[in-house]
Amino acid sequence: MKQYGPRQYYxxxxxxxxxxxxxxxxxxxxxxxxxxGRCREMFLREHAxxxxxxxxxxxxxxxxxxxxxxxxxxxxxxxxxxxxxxxxLTQTQVEFSFDYVRLREGLEELxxxxxxxxxxxxxxxxxxLPTPVPESLRRALTRYQARGxxxxxxxxxxxPVAANGATRPGEA
Length: 172
Prior knowledge:
It contains three helices and six strands; from the N terminus they run βααβββββα. By secondary structure, it is an alpha+beta fold.
């Protein structure tokens, strides 16, 4: 267990409930992914409320990739700090990293790490196309940038865009 340095992450606190555990008593894996989504939602609520309103119109945030590496077991009533950082920001996509830290008796233990890549899209379901990351979201995310994160376009600098809206090979 270790103490973390200066805060450069967005934090969502959570206490594990019985309904999040399996028969053995440890947390069922899918909950780690749910907590990533919840952390992201609370971030929007606190720092980019206009994006929430835009999501009720035609902005869509498509999760392209999600993963989680488990380092230690957690159980009911463990208190967690889910810490989100910006890893990469392109014209149309955002990649987050997540640290799952167990808080116990003043100490912190990293129990899992995760990542999530999201694409901003607009349009009807049959014709959804990539769209730029909203400027308010871009601004809100920059203070939570991970050390060593991709800096190619984090400040919102113009970037060449292909006809399909992609900003690099394989990006949708």
